[in-house]
Amino acid sequence: MGALADLLATRREDILQRFEHEVRAHFSMEQLPRSAILDTVPVLLEELYELLRTTSSGETASAVDNSVRQTARTHRIQRRALGYDVTQIVREYGLLRDCILALLEEAGDALVIAEQRLLHRGLDVAMADAVADSEHGQDEERQKAEQDRAALLERERTARSEAEQQRALLEGVIAQSGDAIIVADAQGVLRLFNPEAERQHGVPLREVGPRQWVQTYGLSDEEGHPLPLERVPLYRALQGEHVSDEQLWIRRPDGTRLPISVTARPLVRPDGTPDGAVFTARDIALRRALAQEREEALALLDTLLATVPVGISCLDRDLRYVRINPTLAAINGVSVEQTLGRTLGEVIPDLASIIEPHYLRVFETGEPERNMEVSVPPPRQGGAIGHYLLSYAPVKDREGRTLMVASAVVDITDLKRFEEQLRQTAEFRERFLGIVSHDLRNPLGIINLSATLMLRQEALPERGLRLAQRIALNAEQMARMIGDLLDLTRGRLGGGIPIEPAPCDLGPLGRRVVSELEVAHPTRELRLEARGNLQGEWDQDRLAQLLGNLLRNAVDYSPEDTPITLALHDEGAQVRLEVRNQGEPIPAGLVPDLFEPFRQGELRGTRPTSGLGLGLYIVQQIAVAHGGSVEVRSTREGGTVFTVRLPRVTSRRA
């Protein structure tokens, strides 16, 4: 290695100190620390040393050149952050070169031309990279400037287009405004007159000054007198006054007069000097008509509220009375005048806790609540219990917000009293039927016994025999009807039909009932199906009555040529009894009331039946008394099936 390489290896700190001194002297960097001034210079000195060493040993210097470029790029970025331009960066590299050569000269070492050339080469690489980057940066700056200029032009075009659109929009708004808009310049000459202004005044724009306004446009007061100029709102706005919602009249050329509500404001330039005035006017003829209609509607509402026999009120969100009619005021015991503006708790404190939750729920949900029955003492009156039907409904604005809650109160005390009277009457009627039915059994028994004795006489003529048979048959039918009436009375008034459960087998019971019915109806086909264990604890006589009623019902409402089936099934803890018959299905509308008393099915194609319509009611009562149930299903394909389910063990009821 030569003297220059040796200098870079042994006196690097001297080079850095001298470089720092020169940079501070030439670039006024007294405030910067040494590390910021030196930056990547120590690395660059190492790379210059490697350049001299590798070249002297015959190795390629391209890798070192790349390292120098990378170091120079890092140094350039740091210097630009400090505000350097490319000239100052190149000048720094020149100062570094001078520092190295000056130290070499002071040492008295001989400078080898090859080493000097390599030193210059390394520093030239750094300088060239800085210059190239600067030119590239200038190109980017020029390109960016062109882009900024194009963007500025585009923003200007967009702003101009938006301004035109805003102007067109403003002109459209002015032209389509429902208010008259008139603009005068600083001298009072009219310059703008939109279509609504032309409609209201009945004349188009005429560029006249203030002295001609009143006559040209027919401005007048309510009595029809021409309006003095000093009272004209537009003229007052020219004088700097702000006018709001003043009413005046326009006399049109056709002689009609129009009331208008006027607002006028002065116009001022950005520098504060007057620039005219703007005048807006609204046709209030419709408003007056609507106000009159509103007053008439409110008067009609007040009349309706005063005369309707239903209590009506409206409460706001604070549960204060906004409206109340005399009917509800009378129910509450507080006059209309004393109610308005007061809260629910203040007017009817004893009932507030009952009623308030309904109001709050309607305010919260926006949904009505209807027909809630309450029974309370009349507020502030004492006495007997009153019965009321209450309904609540939200009063909403156009956006659907609940503003108030309206309530309707119907006094149903008299209705309840009438219903109680009806209930007592019905109870009396049923008790009367029970008493009469019970008392009829004795004379009916005598009739039946007499008919039986007559039938046993061998010498009885044929005519007498037929009469005795008829008496016996009708007596039996009357006995059955009386028995049904007694069962009805027990079911309605006695807590249900009494039963006496005892061990019973439904198989033999079913056969007996079917046999008895076959004797009475020899032309009908009656079938019995019995499966499984059919033993349990039931009232045998009552179950015989239940089966007889169901089978007779099937006989009455099925065609003569169709079979009737009694099916008894073992279902473990319970048994199932079914009576099936064919024929027309029971109309769906009759099914819900089929087990009610005094109901008889009206089916086309069946013969008329005798009886009171209590058979199915008694069937249901017997099933319920045993802790069971009864149901029916009826279709054209499957026929009609009455199903009774009974638990095997029934608690004793008497």
TrEMBL record:
Residues 297-357 form the PAS domain. It catalyses: ATP + protein L-histidine = ADP + protein N-phospho-L-histidine. It is a multi-pass membrane protein. Pfam families: HATPase_c, HisKA, PAS_4. Signal peptide: none annotated. InterPro entries: BphY/WalK/GraS-like (IPR050351), HATPase_C_sf (IPR036890), HATPase_dom (IPR003594), His_kinase_dom (IPR005467), HisK_dim/P_dom (IPR003661), HisK_dim/P_sf (IPR036097), PAS (IPR000014), PAS-assoc_C (IPR000700). It comes from Archangium lansingense. It is found in: Membrane. Its EC number is 2.7.13.3. The keyword Kinase applies. PANTHER family: SENSOR HISTIDINE KINASE GLRK, TWO-COMPONENT HISTIDINE KINASE. Keywords: ATP-binding, Kinase, Membrane, Nucleotide-binding, Phosphoprotein, Transferase, Transmembrane, Transmembrane helix, Two-component regulatory system. Residues 244-296, 370-424 form the PAC domain. This is histidine kinase.
